[in-house]
Amino acid sequence: MAATSGTIIHNVAASHCRYQNRKFAVQLQRDSCAPCIQNLLPIQGGKLAWNSISSMHVNSILKTQSVFIRRGNFSCNATSVVTDSSSLAIDFTKLQNGSDIRGVAIEGLEGEPVNLTQPVAEAIATAFASWLLEKKKADGSRRLSVSIGHDSRISAKTLESAVSRGITRAGLDVVLYGLASTPAMFNSTLTQNEEFLCPVDGAIMITASHLPYNRNGFKFFTNSGGLGKADIKDILQRAAEEHKTFTGDGSKEKFGSSIKRVDYMAIYTSDLVNAVRKASGNLEKPLEGFHIVVDAGNGAGGFFAAKVLEPLGAITTGSQFLEPDGYFPNHIPNPEDKQAMKAITQAVLNNKADLGIIFDTDVDRSAAVDSSGSEINRNRLIALMSAIVLEEHPRTTIVTDSVTSDGLTTFIEKKLGGKHHRFKRGYKNVIDEAIRLNSIGEESHLAIETSGHGALKENNWLDDGAYLMVKLLIKLASAKALGQPGGSKVITDLIEGLEEPAVAVELRLKIDQNHPDLKGRSFREYGEAVLQLLENLVEADPKLRKAPVNYEGVRVSGFGGWFLLRLSLHDPVLPLNIEAQSQEDAVKLGLAVLAAANEFPALNTSALDKFVQTS
Ligand SMILES: O=P(O)(O)OC[C@H]1O[C@H](O)[C@H](O)[C@@H](O)[C@@H]1O
């Protein structure tokens, strides 16, 4: 039995060892998998320390938790809280990144002071616990539990300890999963399996997706899905209050919450394996004969080769960067990154593989490469997933983000007979919109972003890059079962006819927040002013046509192409997407945007200037 921070850790018994692939060489096992033979160790002691908790929020928790705690046989150990006095000035609101929390966790980079310290992380975890108790209307009849997983970042373990302390500090139980994927964490709130202590009431993924090695952050889930912006704001406000109470004298008392460790990824991966087996007529090895290479970019996705593909019979030699390495030494784990796509494409070609699969750091995004080395990401991935989903659900609505191409709309609507609902950027936005459409009677089975985030109704709207790839695997397996020629042809054929532009660029125009031209306005207000002027200019230009239906920014057709200028979800940036059939036409569209942008001195137009000049 290991004990950290004064709180007992149990390794949960695992009669579920059958799920365990002992050949699995990735760090997953080291980090998250307790050896299969441990018994559920007896909880030590029976004494409870019962001291006051300082935060008003936590006080309210205690009213509900205390009933349970008094009844229970839990030990209670004082946990020393490491207080970093420099973090007392931290602006918690700055840690919000849409519906996630992100900050700097590793010091050393100039101009990037650490704001995700251990005390900050602990306060955020306690705040999440108090939020969860309210949401779940906890009445003290049972102790709530929270699962904690992390990606491969070098700050993962330190933050895991801090987050565990924060949760137990509020009187909730912790279940540690170690190295895990973001979708697995959400899934743990839905899984019914007592042996694995599931379902948990809440889940926390420690990740900063594809951001540099010095960053980290949190994503939170309940069985209703990922928390939204308003919830994160609420949690950060609570955390700021909570953080003020940290004294650094190590005198905080704890309740008898337990910390246990389970190999939840075994459940999650076996669900993926079973999904492919079931869809291919319950064959044990439906992918026998296929050679599929995986590139995990040294993130958390290495499990996919040994725990999903190999049990299904696929050969995975030539897979690369499966070992977790939080410095990401090979390429950024991001299917939108050109270098990353080049790396997996090369691996497919070098190994003469049938398919390549690439994940981002925390496996909620993915992309593929076919046997000819063609990338299946962005609009092509959406087209492919739409083709698969529309075969199963004819005429259904496909919800996408705002930067999808006109060619994609034509493909979904004319070739596949579906409806394309181009909504806003942001994976949570598209998923929530698909759920909303269903609630008002418009059937939708797929919500997907060009970034590689995607969720299916059949998979509880879980934003899951691995599940998207499972749908491709099912396609391969079914083609094989029908005796169709091998390779990835069945997949490539599905997107035949998708019109693709000769030129597709994204330029990000930064707003200098310290520029006097802002005149006290926020960057959002400034950005809105740019968009307003652009809209006015477009309306006066007969060669340009504003998109009749548009949910975000200014989207315009003209010169045989289109552009979209919008505000970034999080940054003081106006991303500009341009697609056209020639460079010349793309430049004409760029110039139309520049006419408005040039009126705003705080807007850095250098990328756009360069684009229109060098073309
Ligand atoms: O608005 P942008 O700066 O382009 O960022 C947009 C992206 O923000 C976050 O990373 C979300 O997780 C993504 O779902 C979204 O695509």
Main traits of this protein?
alpha/beta; Alpha-D-Glucose-1,6-Bisphosphate, Chain A, domain 3; TATA-Binding Protein; 3 domains; six-stranded antiparallel beta sheet; 17 helices; 25 strands; globular; binds 6-O-phosphono-alpha-D-glucopyranose; glucose metabolism; magnesium; phosphoprotein; metal-binding
What can be said about this structure in brief?
With 615 residues, the protein is of the alpha/beta class. The protein has three domains: 92-247 and 256-262, Alpha-D-Glucose-1,6-Bisphosphate, Chain A, domain 3; 268-494, Alpha-D-Glucose-1,6-Bisphosphate, subunit A, domain 3 (Alpha-D-Glucose-1,6-Bisphosphate, Chain A, domain 3, 3-Layer(aba) Sandwich), CATH 3.40.120.10; 503-613, TATA-Binding Protein (2-Layer Sandwich).
Description of the molecule:
Its cofactor is Mg(2+). This is phosphoglucomutase (alpha-D-glucose-1,6-bisphosphate-dependent). Belongs to the phosphohexose mutase family. The chain has 615 residues and is an alpha/beta fold. The protein has 3 domains: 92-247 and 256-262, Alpha-D-Glucose-1,6-Bisphosphate, subunit A, domain 3 (Alpha-D-Glucose-1,6-Bisphosphate, Chain A, domain 3), CATH 3.40.120.10; 268-494, 3-Layer(aba) Sandwich (Alpha-D-Glucose-1,6-Bisphosphate, Chain A, domain 3); 503-613, 2-Layer Sandwich (TATA-Binding Protein), CATH 3.30.310. The chain is 35% helix and 18% strand. The strands form 4 sheets. Strands 1, 2, 3, 4, 5, 6, 7, 8, 9 and 10 form a 10-stranded mixed beta sheet that branches. The chain has a 6-stranded antiparallel beta sheet with strand order 21-22-23-24-20-25. Helix 2 (56-71) packs across helix 3 (118-135). It is globular, with a radius of gyration of 25 Å.
